[in-house]
Amino acid sequence: MFLVMHIIHLLTVILWIGGLAFVTIIILPMAIKTPDALQKVLMFQRVEHRFAKLARAFNLITGISGIIMLYVTGWYSALFTSGGIPLTVMTMIWVFWFIMLFGLEPLVIKKMLEGMAKGGAKMDIDAIFIKLNRMHYLMVFISLLASVMGVLVAHGPAFF
Ligand code: HEM
Fold it and tell me: With a 6 A CB cut-off, is 12 part of the ligand 1 pocket?
């Protein structure tokens, strides 16, 4: 059971963080370089629309497989202890993502993109996209940090 969950956890993390990195490193800079404001917004909106659904599924699968691993090993008792810092950090980053994907993204980002598509001419869309790209880089960094924490849990010194 643990091994199956570990494999599912790792593969889902690869797809999720890999997808996020692709949007950040390839798609957003391409959108920024697109001269027409409306095209820029529509292109990113389409990608975001498709990827957000997948990211929500990846977030749930990562969380569920992680919780099952904690349950079968009893490692949940290490959460919020000094010996369980990597596990706690990884879990907190997951909670941050859960709030982002199920709370903020549908309420804030989606509305912001719709607003830009409608009244784009009045906004400084280029500046917004550059900020959006910086924010995505930060989120890639945070996600990689969660992955490093995961490797420390799996292969680091005995924490528990
Ligand atoms: C942003 C979310 C997360 C990311 C990016 C992430 C990433 C990772 C990675 C890369 C590993 C290392 C696997 C390996 O080296 O073989 C790992 C292991 C692990 N993760 Fe996560 N994880 C996340 C969320 C969670 C959550 C929410 C839990 C549980 C509540 C969890 C529990 C575990 C456990 C128990 C292991 C250790 C498996 C072992 O010892 O073999 N993870 N995670």
Answer: no
